[in-house]
Amino acid sequence: MMVGVTKIKSRKVLILICGALLSGCAVAPKPLTSEQLVTQWVADSNDMFKDAEKLDSKLTFASAVARTLNYNLDKEAKSIEEALAFKRMDLSSMDELPNFVASAGYVMRDKKLASSSQDLATGSSGSPSFSMDQENGTADLGLTWNVLDFGLSYYQSKTAADRALIAVERRRKAEHELIAQVRSTYWRAVAYQTLHGQIKSVLAEAQNALSASKAVESENVKSPTEALRYQKSLLETMRQMRAVEQQLSTAPYELAALINVKPSTKFKLAAPDRLVVPHWTMPAERMTAIAFENNPDIHEQAYLSRIASNDSHSELIKALPGVGLAANLNYDSNSFMVDNYWADIGPRLSWNLIKFAHLPKIQKTSKLNEEAVKARRLAVRMAVLAQVYIAERRFKDSVDMYKQADSLYRVDSRLSWVLNQQAAADAAGDLERISAKASAIASQLRRFETYAQMQKAYGRLQQTLGRDLLPAKSFDGKNSIDSLTDTVEARLIQWDKGDKDADFKVVAAAVTSLPRNKDVKTVSTAASAKTTATAKTAVLASKANDLTTDLSRNILLAKADK
After folding, report:
1. How far apart (Å, rounded) are the C-alpha atoms in residues 522 and 49?
2. 104 SS3 class
3. DSSP secondary structure code for residue 206 in this structure
4. 3-class SS letters over 508-537
5. Which residues pair with residue 327 across a beta bridge?
6. What is the pLDDT of residues 497-549, one digit of tens each?
7. What DSSP character marks residue 54?
8. Reported pTM
9. What is the 3-class SS of 452-493, one letter each residue?
């Protein structure tokens, strides 16, 4: 009876111990504390900008592109993903090697492993006996190699290699997208830098004229209707100028995020003396050939096709019999054994018959998968083909729009100068002069916007062709930003002149320069500043057009009142 009670108590104690262990292993959500968040924020803030060279001189377009390609955090993340893919490829190739495993063990029993045997004929049994020590140690060193596993590992290594090349293409695509964003954002920032002072001047003149008009109105020198119309025209001009400034004021911050400097950093842009229109005469057939050879999306789909083919071979191999060979060196400390050390070797054959029975279905599925990948590849190729013609058309249209905006800007500038020279001292003269200045600013804004739109269209054209601004080896962290800027500027000049021999063999240059066996520089896990361009060039151009129309209406109203 006491023995039963003891067993029950022992079970209860065992249950309590197991419950305590299980409750101790449970993991509860643990949010970050404010102190941890602040610590991480400080560390990430230091890591975000620590490697960038200081921005001392005026920022040219070439230096903005070089800094973006060298310091942008989104691009840096893509580069690390690319290096990681190649490291994984190196690791996957190790699976093709035989397994060489060393193992050891130790067993201790509270009782001897004794047993007795029974005579089959007489049914009598002898005394119990044992042939193993209560404490026993074992060790073995084994080499195993399976032909089936080798075949699977071979095709998995090929798949890993293709995925590494896909990472190369995605890094290239990210670079092309960043360059296109810089093209648009830089010239919007130049427009803000150029027009900011002029807008302030017009606003100040309009405010003075508004104050003077209110003083005249209070003295009843003119009719209230005439004074109010005049004030309304001035206020409308001021509203439009502030709208122009608001549309451009975010461009410096967007550019700062692209080149990876603090948004609070004050920097000057090197505005060129004249805006150059790229020379482009390449025929559509040549552009199509370059795009089909270099476009990252087409490259990615080609690698996905090879991956689908490798997957089909892998599925076929899984249905075949596997032949393996195993060799082992063994040790057992059991004192009852005659030989404590021995070696064994032997082949092994295994075959998944159910897998083999489903081989026809597996082959049909693999074939359908390859057809699906091919269909996507053809769809992407068709999209790229259309993009070539669309990008060229948009570039030519944007060039025409810029030339027209440039002509209109020159006329408005001359008109503003003439009216400023002939300005009379009366209020209507002030209104006409201020409106002419505002119209000139609106035309200059439209000129910059159409030029930025033209540069963006030109960048999209280069992006569609898959033309790399520089090979990947130019951004290995060893060159200064000044040398990279010089190289970028020379390359941009080649492009703008329509140099047809300026194309790189992008894939070979990119792959041979990868840091496959080198340490990869670690970047912070902080979320990079969002660099998506917020410019709405079509809306901006429309508003600028409305600005010119309203200003002309105001001039006519002022003349009518006069």
Report:
1. 13
2. strand
3. H
4. HHHHHCCCCCCCCCCCCCCCCCCCCCCCCH
5. 143, 345
6. 765 544 444 333 333 333 333 333 333 333 333 333 333 333 333 433 443 34
7. P
8. 0.74
9. HHHHHHHHHHHHHHCCCCCCHHHHCCCCCHHHHHHHHHHHHH
Give the whole-angstrom CA distance, residue 445 versus residue 451: 10
**Distance from C-alpha of 460 to C-alpha of 447, rounded to nearest angstrom:** 20
Kindly list the distances between the CA atom of residue 320 and the CA atoms of 326, 478, 542, in Å, as whole numbers in the listed order: 19, 51, 67
Cα three-residue angle 11-16-21, rounded to 5 degrees: 125
User: Lowest-confidence range among 51-55, 132-136, 313-317, 526-530?
Assistant: 526-530
Whole-angstrom distance, CA of residue 541 vs CA of residue 442: 9
The amino acid at residue 382 is M
Q: Which long-range contacts (CB under 8 A, 24 or more apart) does 261-267 make?
A: 261/49, 261/52, 261/55, 261/67, 262/49, 263/529, 265/55, 267/55, 267/58, 267/59
Looking at the DSSP bridge assignments, the partners of residue 460 are: none
pLDDT tens per residue across span 177-192:
999 899 889 998 998 8
The pLDDT assigned to 24 comes to: 58
Q: What whole-number distance in Å separates Cα of residue 459 and Cα of residue 179?
A: 7
**127 Cβ neighbours under 8 A, 6+ residues apart:** 116
Q: Decide if 170 contacts 296 (C-beta within 8 A).
A: yes
* pLDDT band with cut points at 50, 70 and 90 for residue 86: very high
Distance CA(509)–CA(492), nearest Å, equals: 19
Q: What average pLDDT does the structure give for the chain? A: 79
3-state secondary structure at position 40: helix
pLDDT of residue 551: 37
Residues 332, 188 contacting (CB under 8 angstroms): no
